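re: ur question from the group chat, yeah i did fold both. here u go
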Amino acid sequence: MSKADEAVARGIVKVSDRALGPYQSAVVRIGFSFTWLVFLLFEWPHRRELYGPDGPWSWELGERLVAGNHAFTVLLWSDSAVWFEAVYALAVLSSAALLAGWRTRTMSVLFMVGVLSLQNRSVFMGDGGDNVIHLMAMYLVLTRCGRVWSLDARRARRSRAGGGAGAGGNDLVGIALWSLLGAVLLVATAGGRLSWFGDDGPVLYVGWATFLWGLWLVYGLWWYVTRPADGRENVRRLMDVLGNIVHNAVLLIIMAEVCLIYATAGWYKIQGSRWQDGTAVYYPLHLDYFSPWPALAEVLGSSGLMVMLLTYGTVIVQVAFPFTLFNRRVKNVLLAVMMLEHASIAVILGLPFFSLAMIAADAVFLPTVFLVWIGAGASRAAGRLRRGRPREPEEEAETSEGSGADGPARTLVG
């Protein structure tokens, strides 16, 4: 019992003392914001047909659908073309800001609003990757995904180097942004656009007004307790512990979500006769709609051995991956294979955004050592681009942030 108690105590300390996987959560943030940003910019000429007033899925049809499924979208607050352009522009800007890690907490909320608003407005626009982005946009709100590789992290390092206390009272940009969003929330709530309770919120019986106002108040409280003043240390530590627990729990949910995606995909494939006889991959290779490079698809599809290997290999990797998570070496091999598979799907079948979304989701399992090595290489390359300027102390600190006495912080599976 003593050993069990010690193990439980160590587990509690581990999940509450720090935010695990800072590099993994950062690369997930970068991956999904990049994927959504590139998609929005790529479809910019067609935005009005996809999600706007010129689309086949009219505003009236969208309103009727949302009335039935209680999905969240601010695009249906008005049928004005100006309102649509403003929401689309907000989605683009928030994606770019989240990618750079500028005001990560706030931008993650705006990123979620943009994703849900556009996708729920026209539910038939997507290729499967949109479902993953939909889920991850909501999860990222509850993670501390800006601890490394972000403008927020750089600002925090410079503040510490200058003797500051982080988000202090001189953060005029943060105060103005918080006040502006509070005013927008007030107008939307007073206008009946957001409900406090019911089945139309992110959680059962919790409306969007309750959720968004709760985030707004928590962000304001966090700013208040992190200001340099005496008597707030205990509250600051409590909020930091709660933030770590929520972050680690959501990170575990993200990993479980990825495992669930692959497990269900693999087990459903096993039940298909074409996957059982090893010919399933042959058919999408010969669909004109999924053949941006017909010659390449023909080369792969003309080899019966290659088709069989790809078919069986896909099923084996997807079914086996969740069972390899506690063996880092095997997990890393299968992870590399899956990422290579998605990259191949992007090129051969012409599904780049689906592949980018899945690669971004897979990145939550990347080894910390590998990500630190990538970050160090990127920093060296950036230094050479700046004419050989030596790295500043805060830049050196980024490669070691999230490390403790036991080495770099890892995900819950290594």
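okk and heres the other one u asked abt
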Amino acid sequence: MNSPQEPMPLNDPYRPYDPPQETRRRSREGAGADRTALVIHTIADIAAGFLGLWILLYLLDANQGNVFVGFVQGMADWLAGWSQDIFTMDIEGMRVFLNYGLAAVIYLLLGHGIAAWIRRL
């Protein structure tokens, strides 16, 4: 096409808004896997968020009688029940940081790893 008067070739249709066939097929076939991966990813982030929030509230000496602080502590205790007393330090703040932090890191690693694996399927 050297000049504007030449017609477009017939075997090369111009479709600016049509995505490639591979993109359309992948979006339909992988939609369930992508949603599942997103749910797993989000649950892991929420769990780690509760654990991180409890660490922060504990280290800042939040009021233990407050309803919100009690709720966050209960959720963190439930989520990190398996990791309690792995580290037994004399300093209480360091013990809370290490035990709850370990659980948060493991939730993040597992959740994001499983989500990435599901997306690749």
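fwiw on the second one: The CA atoms of residues 68 and 74 lie 10 Å apart. The helical segments are 21-29, 31-59, 67-79, 92-120. idk if thats what u expected
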